[in-house]
Protein backbone atom coordinates (compact mmCIF):
# COMPACT_ATOMS: atom_id res chain seq x y z
CA UNK A 1 0.00 0.00 0.00
CA UNK A 2 1.50 3.29 -1.11
CA UNK A 3 1.27 6.34 1.17
CA UNK A 4 1.60 9.96 0.16
CA UNK A 5 2.91 12.69 2.46
CA UNK A 6 -0.57 13.79 3.56
CA UNK A 7 -1.58 10.18 4.34
CA UNK A 8 1.56 9.71 6.45
CA UNK A 9 1.04 13.03 8.25
CA UNK A 10 -2.58 12.06 9.00
CA UNK A 11 -1.56 8.56 10.10
CA UNK A 12 0.96 9.99 12.57
CA UNK A 13 -1.43 12.66 13.87
CA UNK A 14 -4.20 10.08 14.30
CA UNK A 15 -2.09 8.25 16.93
CA UNK A 16 -1.31 11.53 18.71
CA UNK A 17 2.32 11.85 17.61
CA UNK A 18 3.72 15.09 16.27
CA UNK A 19 4.50 14.82 12.52
CA UNK A 20 8.06 16.15 12.71
CA UNK A 21 10.24 16.27 9.62
CA UNK A 22 12.35 13.32 10.81
CA UNK A 23 9.30 11.28 11.86
CA UNK A 24 7.67 11.84 8.46
CA UNK A 25 10.88 10.86 6.66
CA UNK A 26 11.13 7.65 8.71
CA UNK A 27 7.44 6.89 8.15
CA UNK A 28 8.00 7.28 4.40
CA UNK A 29 10.85 4.76 4.53
CA UNK A 30 8.83 2.35 6.66
CA UNK A 31 5.45 2.45 4.95
CA UNK A 32 6.11 3.39 1.30
CA UNK A 33 7.11 -0.17 0.34
CA UNK A 34 4.11 -2.02 1.76
CA UNK A 35 4.48 -4.59 4.52
CA UNK A 36 8.04 -5.20 5.61
CA UNK A 37 10.26 -6.17 8.54
CA UNK A 38 13.11 -3.87 9.43
CA UNK A 39 15.74 -3.59 12.14
CA UNK A 40 16.66 -0.23 13.61
CA UNK A 41 20.12 -0.53 12.07
CA UNK A 42 18.73 -1.26 8.61
CA UNK A 43 16.31 1.69 8.85
CA UNK A 44 19.19 3.92 9.97
CA UNK A 45 21.23 2.87 6.91
CA UNK A 46 18.25 3.50 4.63
CA UNK A 47 17.72 6.93 6.19
CA UNK A 48 21.37 7.88 5.69
CA UNK A 49 21.29 6.57 2.10
CA UNK A 50 18.25 8.79 1.46
CA UNK A 51 19.83 11.91 2.94
CA UNK A 52 17.87 11.80 6.20
CA UNK A 53 20.27 12.88 8.93
CA UNK A 54 19.16 11.06 12.05
CA UNK A 55 20.91 9.28 14.91
CA UNK A 56 20.43 5.59 15.64
CA UNK A 57 19.01 6.59 19.05
CA UNK A 58 16.34 8.70 17.30
CA UNK A 59 15.54 5.74 15.05
CA UNK A 60 15.03 3.51 18.10
CA UNK A 61 12.93 6.16 19.85
CA UNK A 62 10.66 6.59 16.84
CA UNK A 63 10.32 2.85 16.21
CA UNK A 64 9.27 2.36 19.83
CA UNK A 65 6.86 5.32 19.66
CA UNK A 66 5.33 3.94 16.45
CA UNK A 67 5.04 0.52 18.12
CA UNK A 68 3.40 1.94 21.26
CA UNK A 69 0.98 3.86 19.03
CA UNK A 70 0.02 0.67 17.14
CA UNK A 71 1.62 1.60 13.81
CA UNK A 72 4.28 -1.12 14.09
CA UNK A 73 4.66 -4.46 15.79
CA UNK A 74 7.95 -5.47 17.40
CA UNK A 75 9.04 -9.05 16.72
CA UNK A 76 11.76 -10.24 19.10
CA UNK A 77 13.64 -13.09 17.45
CA UNK A 78 16.17 -13.50 20.25
CA UNK A 79 17.64 -11.39 23.05
CA UNK A 80 19.91 -9.53 20.64
CA UNK A 81 17.62 -9.14 17.61
CA UNK A 82 14.33 -7.27 17.16
CA UNK A 83 12.49 -6.49 13.96
CA UNK A 84 9.76 -3.93 13.46
CA UNK A 85 6.85 -5.13 11.35
CA UNK A 86 4.59 -2.76 9.42
CA UNK A 87 1.92 -5.48 9.29
CA UNK A 88 0.11 -5.13 12.61
CA UNK A 89 -2.65 -7.64 11.83
CA UNK A 90 -2.56 -10.97 13.71
CA UNK A 91 0.00 -13.25 12.05
CA UNK A 92 3.12 -15.33 12.70
CA UNK A 93 6.60 -15.54 11.15
CA UNK A 94 9.19 -17.75 9.57
CA UNK A 95 12.66 -16.68 10.62
CA UNK A 96 15.29 -17.65 8.04
CA UNK A 97 18.35 -18.36 10.18
CA UNK A 98 20.68 -18.31 7.17
CA UNK A 99 19.69 -14.85 5.92
CA UNK A 100 18.24 -13.24 9.06
CA UNK A 101 15.02 -12.41 7.19
CA UNK A 102 11.48 -12.65 8.53
CA UNK A 103 8.59 -13.85 6.40
CA UNK A 104 4.92 -13.53 7.33
CA UNK A 105 2.72 -16.54 8.00
CA UNK A 106 -0.93 -15.50 7.72
CA UNK A 107 -2.65 -15.83 11.09
CA UNK A 108 -5.27 -18.24 9.74
CA UNK A 109 -2.63 -20.68 8.44
CA UNK A 110 -1.36 -21.76 11.86
CA UNK A 111 -3.32 -23.14 14.80
CA UNK A 112 -1.94 -23.24 18.32
CA UNK A 113 -3.50 -26.03 20.37
CA UNK A 114 -3.05 -27.40 23.87
CA UNK A 115 -2.22 -24.12 25.59
CA UNK A 116 -1.79 -24.93 29.28
CA UNK A 117 -4.11 -23.48 31.90
CA UNK A 118 -3.48 -19.77 32.25
CA UNK A 119 -2.31 -18.28 35.52
CA UNK A 120 -5.25 -17.13 37.62
CA UNK A 121 -6.56 -13.69 36.76
CA UNK A 122 -5.02 -13.62 33.26
CA UNK A 123 -6.25 -13.94 29.71
CA UNK A 124 -4.47 -14.44 26.39
CA UNK A 125 -3.82 -11.14 24.65
CA UNK A 126 -2.00 -12.69 21.69
CA UNK A 127 0.06 -15.67 20.60
CA UNK A 128 3.19 -15.00 18.55
CA UNK A 129 4.84 -17.95 16.83
CA UNK A 130 8.25 -17.77 15.18
CA UNK A 131 9.13 -20.83 13.11
CA UNK A 132 12.88 -20.96 12.60
CA UNK A 133 13.99 -22.38 9.28
CA UNK A 134 17.35 -23.03 7.73
CA UNK A 135 18.42 -23.92 4.21
CA UNK A 136 18.65 -27.61 3.49
CA UNK A 137 22.17 -28.84 3.08
CA UNK A 138 22.82 -30.74 -0.17
UniProtKB/TrEMBL annotation:
Family, per entry: Belongs to the Fur family.
Entry protein name: Ferric uptake regulation protein
The organism's place on the tree of life at top rank: Bacteria
Keyword annotations from UniProtKB, A to Z: Cytoplasm, DNA-binding, Iron, Metal-binding, Repressor, Transcription, Transcription regulation, Zinc
Matches recorded under Gene3D superfamilies: Winged helix-like DNA-binding domain superfamily/Winged helix DNA-binding domain (1.10.10.10)
Main location: cytoplasm
tRNA-binding as UniProt keyword: no
Record note on quaternary structure: Homodimer.
Pfam family, one: FUR
InterPro entries: FUR, WH-like_DNA-bd_sf, WH_DNA-bd_sf
Amino acid sequence: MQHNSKDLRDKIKMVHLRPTKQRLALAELLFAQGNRHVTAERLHNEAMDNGVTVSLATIYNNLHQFTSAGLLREVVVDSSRSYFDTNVSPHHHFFHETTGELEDIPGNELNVDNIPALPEGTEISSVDVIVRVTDRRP
